[in-house]
Specification:
The chain is built from 16 helices and no strands. The protein is mostly helical. It has a domain of 76 residues: Tetratricopeptide repeat domain (Serine Threonine Protein Phosphatase 5, Tetratricopeptide repeat, Alpha Horseshoe), CATH 1.25.40. Helix 1 runs antiparallel to helix 2, helix 9 packs antiparallel against helix 10 and helix 11 packs antiparallel against helix 12.
Length: 290
Amino acid sequence: MLAVILFTALAATALDRAIADLDAGRLDQAETALRDIVQRAPGSAPAHYHLGITLFRKGQLQAAVAPLSRALQLAPRDAQAWKALGVVYASQSLFELAAEPFGNACRLDPRLPDACYYLARSLYALNRFEPALDAYRKALPVEAAPARVYAGIAQASEALGRTADAERYFRLAEEHNAKAPAARKLRANDDPRIAHGLFLFRQGRTHDALAPLESVAADYPNSAKARLQLGRVLYQLNRIEAALPHLQKAVELDSSSAAAHLLLARVYFRLGRPGDARRHTAIAERLGPE
């Protein structure tokens, strides 16, 4: 009995050191130590969990599945581990596989940061819009950055044809993001003004789409997404010369965007610059559909 207690204490000490290595970014050391621990203590759910997290952080996504799954066999009510497994799948765009782990995490601990939000995003990606709305509503009370939840509700509402609800929630997303402290503002490409502008554009309200897109492009002049979408709206409004600098900047910021090259080619063609138009058309064709 004393030997078992001593072994357990030593394994716990080794696990603490491995977690410290993981937290400090010493991933190779952490992996080596954790593999040793799970061999010596195969019933340690925390060891399997942290091995999975280490492999995920090393970019070994498929390899991370096995230790996380084993951790969940040992501790099936661990919401954090369920969320981690969902993140591994979602990072590979395997949303069908991600939905169940995220669903378990959200059910077991609705207050766990990101659990219900990630569930909602996965369901949205699977075109399961009503369940996505339910998950977004569960996420909202504990969300540190509610703008992204309101934007998600708006997008799901639009997909369901509830355009009045969509517009209301896009505006709520914009308001909350504008008031958020700098640390909690959404990244430039996730700014809800872009999604709102695209929504208005899809609704045929092209003039109305200008204001949110001009605003976000002014705030984030190095956002390729904002520049591309503003250029698209200006092009549709036949403001060709005004569209040009935004699309040029979009291509400069993201040269891998076929859509930006193709739209810029159209602008050059309209401006009587066929050589430039052909060059960007060729680039868009070489890049292929996005």
